[in-house]
């Protein structure tokens, strides 16, 4: 998989893309991630990527020309399955979306900034708009990191124990059950006896029951999607 990130703040990606699972996946050659500075696609000496909006509204708007040049240059080199724009009014990112996107070959993620992007970008260059929640951030870089992380960890080989990802919250529209580790008794706080019993079928049923109880209590909205 290849992920191309278009941004006006390339330095913000340095740490997240160089740590943990994403770093290991990159080192293994499972994912190829490239960060592109949109200022490299400008033509003026000030490398300007924004301008005032028509109509007198406050704020600055990302210009269409640098974004078009960047996307066009990338598309000249390979086919892209999706060109994504991170936007608060896009479709809400969730686990099923991450699952399907992890099977794509090449994607571009455009990080919004300032007041937003010239709407012609959204009309002519973008194939999908994605939001990570009903709130506004300074820029689209953080959502792009969230999307990238959620996708990359699902690529086979990215996580040492691939079964671990399958039991995460939201994979089956249930919250994950409680998990415990050693010691079995800490300050009188004991691990549930069932987890120490060795009866795997009973343990699996306990985990399912706990997942259902936690989902019913904390996120009852998910139960409508659970089969």
From TrEMBL:
Its Gene Ontology biological processes? tRNA N1-guanine methylation
Reactions mediated catalytically: guanosine(37) in tRNA + S-adenosyl-L-methionine = N(1)-methylguanosine(37) in tRNA + S-adenosyl-L-homocysteine + H(+)
Which Enzyme Commission number(s) are listed? 2.1.1.228
Q: Which UniProt keywords are present, listed alphabetically?
A: Cytoplasm, Methyltransferase, S-adenosyl-L-methionine, Transferase, tRNA processing
Task: Quote the cellular component terms of the Gene Ontology held in the record.
Answer: cytosol
Q: Where are the transmembrane segments?
A: none
Under InterPro entries, the record lists: Alpha/beta_knot_MTases, tRNA_m1G_MeTrfase_C_sf, tRNA_m1G_MeTrfase_TrmD, tRNA_m1G_MTases_N, tRNA_MeTrfase_TRMD/TRM10
- Where is the protein found, in the record's own terms? Cytoplasm
Q: Where is the signal peptide?
A: none
GO molecular function annotations of the record: tRNA (guanine(37)-N1)-methyltransferase activity
Q: Does the keyword Transferase apply?
A: yes
Q: Name one Pfam family in it.
A: tRNA_m1G_MT
Q: Where does S-adenosyl-L-methionine bind?
A: 112, 132-137
Domain tRNA methyltransferase TRMD/TRM10-type positions = 1-224
Please name the top-level EC class of this enzyme. Answer: transferase
The record's listing under NCBIfam families reads: PRK00026.1, trmD
What this chain does, per the entry, is described as: Specifically methylates guanosine-37 in various tRNAs.
Instruction: State whether it acts alone or in a complex, and with which partners, per the record.
Output: Homodimer.
| Name assigned to this protein | tRNA (guanine-N(1)-)-methyltransferase
The organism encoding this protein is Paramuribaculum intestinale
Q: Which gene encodes it?
A: trmD
């Amino acid at each position: 998989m290849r992920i191309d990130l278009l941004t006006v703040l390339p330095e913000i990606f340095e740490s997240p893309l160089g740590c943990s699972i994403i770093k290991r996946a990159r080192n293994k050659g499972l994912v190829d991630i490239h960060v592109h500075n949109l200022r490299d696609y400008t033509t003026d000496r000030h490398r300007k990527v924004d301008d005032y909006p028509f109509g007198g509204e406050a704020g600055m708007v990302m210009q269409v020309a640098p974004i078009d040049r960047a996307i066009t240059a990338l598309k000249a080199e390979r086919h892209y399955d999706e060109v994504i724009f991170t936007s608060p009014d896009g479709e809400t990112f969730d686990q099923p979306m991450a699952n399907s996107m992890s099977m794509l070959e090449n994607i571009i993620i455009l990080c919004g900034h300032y007041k937003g992007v010239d709407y012609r970008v959204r009309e002519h260059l973008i194939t999908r708009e994605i939001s990570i929640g009903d709130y506004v951030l300074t820029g689209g870089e953080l959502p792009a990191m969230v999307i990238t992380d959620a996708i990359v960890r699902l690529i086979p080989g990215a996580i040492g124990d691939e079964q671990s990802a399958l039991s995460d919250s939201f994979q089956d529209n249930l919250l994950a059950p409680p998990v415990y580790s050693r010691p079995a008794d800490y300050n009188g706080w004991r691990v549930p006896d069932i987890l120490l019993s060795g009866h795997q079928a009973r343990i699996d049923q306990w985990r399912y029951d706990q997942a259902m109880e936690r989902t019913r209590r904390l996120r009852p909205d998910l139960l409508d999607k659970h089969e």
